[in-house]
């Protein structure tokens, strides 16, 4: 698959591959996807807005240039402490896997990130993966992120992204590190069409994490732990959909990860805060989600592994072959798949 190279959220030519457990695959215009929803279905999307989580700066001890990509935090509400992946000098125009390594990082190292200052408080499971604590008040940190940060992006994108490129139309609290891009298909016309098809719509808030670090060893740790919040109204909507015989349809892998983490063994959904730590893959028994509307994902990625919970490998491989053959585009502004 070829990457989408322009930040257009709803291109008129966008494609949709539709796959079912029976192995049947069909190709649709993505603009028509609501026609596949039934009365009683519940569509759930992630309403997280995207942080400007790429911070160029300087490693004070060595004096060398670095880029810090914020990658996680323990809760949606605190802004003082983050986990982060650190790169050497350069920017998104260099492919991530070719980026220079940062200087050797040590606990206590100080980082100057524009108007912000941070301290390395812990080395995590890789030399470039660390915990950071920012100086100053939450207001100071928010202001520094807004003034100095940029959206995380990769070399397939030909222009520098702005925040409005990576916020969905339903974006609320700025907690995601990369956009919950499956939600790019949504706008107010789509939400109206969902209601017209007698389906319902609800949201959760999930701190969508980074998709690639450029290092195979570190990529094997993806997805990192990600906090989420499930409103009581969404948990109730799942209960009502079940009672009516409707399907619960996730818009994006982040919704699957949050809802399955919050599910009880008997399929009920707990409302409130949580931290998604587990991985979803071919051995996962899905307890809440019946279908997923997602971007196209390449084999070997953590997102693709999650899709293996929905389809047998042979069907998923067939779908991947169809995506390649028919010129579907991948990455955050690419085409989509709907697995029923």
Model description:
The chain has 340 residues and is of the alpha/beta class. The chain is 20% helix and 29% strand. It contains eight helices and 19 strands. The chain is globular and about 60 Å long. The two termini are 22 Å apart. The model has no long low-confidence stretch (mean pLDDT 96).
Q: Can you tell me the overall shape?
A: globular
**Relative helix content:** 10-25%
| Assigned CATH superfamily of the largest domain | QueA-like
Question: What is the helix/strand order?
Answer: EEEEEEEEEEEHHEHEHEHEHEEHHEE
- Give me the CATH fold name of the largest domain: QueA-like
How many alpha or pi helices?
8
What is the first-to-last residue Cα distance?
22 Å
Average pLDDT number: 96
**Largest sheet, order of strands side by side?**
3-2-19-17-15-4-13-14-16
Tally of extended strands?
A: 19
Number of spatially distinct domains: 2
Largest sheet: 9 strands, mixed
Strand content: 25-35%
Using only C-alpha atoms, the radius of gyration works out to 20 Å
What structural class is derived from the secondary structure elements?
A: alpha/beta
Unreliable parts: none
Instruction: Write the CATH architecture name of the largest domain.
Output: 3-Layer(aba) Sandwich
CATH class of the largest domain: Alpha Beta
